[in-house]
Amino acid sequence: MVGWYDGAEVLVANAGALCYDTVQVAHDDETLIPNKIGQRISLHCRDSHHNTVIEHGSATFVKKVPIFVARQDLRARLASFDERSLRYCRAADGGLTYYVPNYLEMSYISRVMDKDPERAGFLLGMRQEWIDDHERAIYRYSKYTDEELNDFWDSLDLNPERIRETMRARLPVGINTVYMDTRNLWSWIHHAEKRLCLRAQDEIRRIRRQETHQLKKVFPTIFGDVNMPCYMASGCPEKKKCGLIELDESGKWALPFYKKSIST
Ligand SMILES: Cc1cc2nc3c(=O)[nH]c(=O)nc-3n(C[C@H](O)[C@H](O)[C@H](O)COP(=O)(O)OP(=O)(O)OC[C@H]3O[C@@H](n4cnc5c(N)ncnc54)[C@H](O)[C@@H]3O)c2cc1C
């Protein structure tokens, strides 16, 4: 998280107070301690979907994630994004990096190797292909966008920018991209709930988990209990269930299945 306003939670409480003609809450954090008026108003507005009150706060993150993950994140309409442009920025040597999924990491393959060398050999081949594809794409992209070729493109009446904007199409979606992402606090809650679900793709879920963790530190009143949608809605809203979480009888706490099976 690179940007936030420290007084945002007090501002949110005051926005709620203004709507209901509640005595104006004070301009300090005292009002937000548990059961004080500011905390009660803020949580009432959040939980009754009086979203605009929560929208008076915002937070900004800078993220470096593979393009196939960014594509999902960048779908949010209630957000402001700015992404590093490979049209205007030439990726200098080492400037382009790529993602390797956990099942192709050597730490995982080594564990498989101990139990099943044949299957580990298959994964090793797959890992090498993954690396080759990305390295080759980066090499070829870099080769044709090298500044030393600028005179050559000029001699053909071709703008080097034109070459960069088309050569980036050769980069696989596992390449990392960088962007700044600003959302209001309601929007962060909304997107956190959706992607914290265990049915969400692992990579985007882990980004949301990191974001939520940081938001909790800065905005403890509003984000304190933000969690997976099944926790927040006291039940799973998905048609296809993950099969890993079950709420206890109070409907408030989710128990991982393995814990449940140990105790029964
Ligand atoms: C489990 C899951 C699976 C998905 N699968 C796919 C997929 O297969 N293909 C695909 O293309 N996308 C997919 N998406 C992306 C999804 O369609 C949304 O684009 C993305 O999640 C953004 O959600 P949002 O619209 O709620 O958020 P935002 O775009 O940030 O909007 C926030 C809220 O504002 C309101 N809003 C915003 N714009 C409008 C509008 N024009 N009209 C009415 N209300 C509006 C809505 O209440 C909305 O929930 C998936 C998302 C999830 C969570």
Strand-pairing-aware structural class: alpha+beta
The hetero compounds bound to this protein are: flavin-adenine dinucleotide
Note the beta-strand portion: 5-15%
What does the radius of gyration come to? Answer: 24 Å
Low-confidence stretches: none
Shape: flat
Care to count the β-strands? 6
The percentage helix is 40-55%
Spatial arrangement of strands, main beta sheet: 1-2-4-3
| Biggest beta sheet summary | 4 strands, antiparallel
Q: How many separate helices?
A: 13
Structure description:
This protein has 264 residues and is of the alpha+beta class. It has 13 helices and 6 strands. The protein has helices spanning 8-19, 37-47, 51-54, 67-73, 106-115, 117-145, 150-155, 160-167, 185-196, 202-218, 220-223, 229-232, 257-263; strands at residues 3-4, 58-66, 80-83, 176-184, 245-247, 254-256. The two termini are 42 Å apart. The structure holds flavin-adenine dinucleotide (FAD). Flavin-adenine dinucleotide (FAD) binds at residues 75-79, 187, 190, 194.
